[in-house]
Write a structure and sequence with these properties.
The protein is built from eight helices and two strands. By secondary structure, it is mainly α. Helix 3 packs across helix 5 (96-103). The two termini are 51 Å apart. The model has no long low-confidence stretch (mean pLDDT 75).
Length: 164
């Protein structure tokens, strides 16, 4: 844990004790240790452990940023639409906020692009629903989906495939 590099869970299993007990013992041990001089500052073992945890988080963050940038280089084009498409495709694996930070883009920009895309798709879908209702009403509610799809626009087939 402190010196062995093993995880708390692993050591707790080996000793046959709970993780909470092990954490308590570790805390008591660290309190008994003398502060050390690091970079001209006195730091207790607890402060050093906190600094190490913070640095580990920072290293993980920078690794993710590097991965995002590497994958971003695979996408061609640097225009607005291509950057938006790149962030959308990477958002499956990474948070949108992290992608935006890596590429120096404001998350609000991505959200506004998303809203405009949704609005245009929503209006297209609303038009199809109106058309389907007209066909259904014109045939006194007797048409099922096969006949409605024949009578409606080709967009109906696309909409039906996307919903299933």
């Amino acid at each position: 844990m402190i010196h062995s590099g093993k995880s708390v869970v692993q050591i707790a299993r080996e000793l046959g004790c709970s993780e909470a007990s092990l954490h308590g013992w570790k805390k008591a041990y660290l309190k008994g240790q003398q502060p050390e001089q690091i970079d001209g500052q006195q730091q207790s073992p607890e402060q050093m452990a906190q600094t190490i945890r913070q640095l580990h988080k920072e290293v993980e963050y920078l690794k993710r940023q590097r991965e995002i940038l590497k994958k971003g280089d695979e996408h061609s084009g640097r225009g607005t639409e291509s950057r938006y498409a790149m962030i959308r495709s990477l958002s499956v694996e990474y948070a949108i906020k992290e992608c935006c930070e890596a590429f120096g883009v404001f998350p609000q920009w991505v959200l506004s692009m998303e809203e405009s895309r949704t609005d245009s798709e929503g209006s297209e879908e609303a038009e199809l629903v109106k058309q389907i209702r007209r066909v259904f009403a014109a045939n006194k509610g007797r048409y099922g989906s096969p006949r409605v799809s024949q009578a409606a626009s080709p967009g109906w087939d696309r909409l039906r495939r996307e919903s299933s």
